[in-house]
Design brief:
The chain has 279 residues and is α/β, with parallel strands linked by helices. The chain has ten helices and 13 strands. Strand 2 and strand 3 (33-34) form a beta hairpin. Helix 5 crosses helix 9 (230-238). The longest helix has 16 residues, at 258-273. The structure holds 1-O-phosphono-alpha-D-glucopyranose (G1P). 1-O-phosphono-alpha-D-glucopyranose binds at residues 108, 128, 131, 170-171, 190, 202-205, 229, 231. One of its GO terms (molecular function) is UTP:glucose-1-phosphate uridylyltransferase activity.
């Protein structure tokens, strides 16, 4: 059973400067909740209650968010404002939170390796909180992936089709289709130019990884952009037939940039806030 979910959250959020100069990008609100809270809710829905967060300098607001604020609790006790805290209180009751700091930014692979002491030797999920994923029709994206893991018992990456001109923003896979929404990966490339991309199937910020990934990351040389890429470490698992790519059901908003962030805001306002499901 998978119990742990790792949130790499040390990145600078440069695409959202100056908003992210003194505030973690994971704390940007989508309507009334910070991005990372949506991710933790998705993890808990999938049964992953041990939350591990890789933070960095200037990210203390994350730890304060997942903690009790006694002054605030005291202030609103017995008022109708208590309803605003119902969701976050539930997360505090049902999840555990542990943190470690990444002192140097050396890529997503390096961030995941930094989380190793929090994860140990068990399979785990990874959520990149700036990808906000929702599915109004049924299971959340992580829940869908956990079910798939129980079937395949290997690493799983969530994918979506992107405009072929945009492959240079993503890890891109190719593989053998084994169901209309599942591929066994045989190749993956980090941020290829459109002419070099093996397909237009892009990895988004949801992964399930088997723990052998840590050793493979350690053995991975810096790749694209001089950074240690999770895509390169996963490629080594794929060579043994051990990576599944899954076209998830639902929607994904890239909240690391203004356009996706605004789309997510409108979506959440219509579907959660206005309908009273936002807390
Ligand atoms: C990272 C990964 C990339 C993946 C993307 C998904 O890139 O390196 O393979 O497609 O996340 O959001 P980043 O967006 O951190 O540059």
């Amino acid at each position: 059973m998978i119990k742990k979910c790792l949130f790499p959250a040390a990145g600078y959020g440069t695409r959202f400067l100056p908003a992210t100069k003194a505030m973690p990008k994971e704390m940007l609100p989508v309507v009334n909740k910070p991005l990372i809270q949506y991710g933790v809710e998705e993890a808990l829905e999938a049964g992953l209650s041990e939350i591990s967060i890789v933070t960095g300098r200037g990210k203390r607001a994350l730890e304060d968010h997942f903690d009790i604020s006694y002054e605030l609790e005291n202030q609103i006790k017995g008022t109708d404002k208590e309803k605003y805290l119902v969701g976050i209180r539930r997360l505090l009751n049902e999840c555990s939170f542990s943190y470690t700091r990444q002192t140097e930014m050396k890529g997503l692979g390096h961030a995941i390796l930094t989380g190793r002491p929090l994860i140990g030797d068990e399979p785990f999920a990874v959520v990149l909180a700036d990808d906000l994923c929702v599915n109004l029709e049924g299971d959340g994206v992580l829940q869908q992936m956990v079910k798939l893991y129980n079937q395949f018992r290997c690493s799983i990456v969530a994918i979506q089709e992107v405009d072929p001109q945009e492959t240079n923003k993503y890890g891109v896979i190719s593989g053998e289709m084994i169901r209309d929404d599942i591929y066994r990966v045989n190749s993956m490339v980090e941020k290829p130019a459109p002419e070099d991309a093996p397909s237009n199937l892009a990895i988004i910020g949801r992964y399930i990884l088997t723990p052998d990934i840590f050793k493979l990351i350690e053995e991975t040389e810096p790749g694209k952009g001089g950074e240690i890429q999770i895509t390169d470490a996963l490629m080594k698992q794929a060579q043994n037939g051990c990576v599944i790519a899954y076209k998830f059901k639902g929607q994904r908003f890239d909240c690391g940039g203004a356009e996706g962030y605004i789309e997510a805001t409108n979506f959440c306002f219509e579907n959660f806030y206005k309908t009273g499901k936002a807390y």
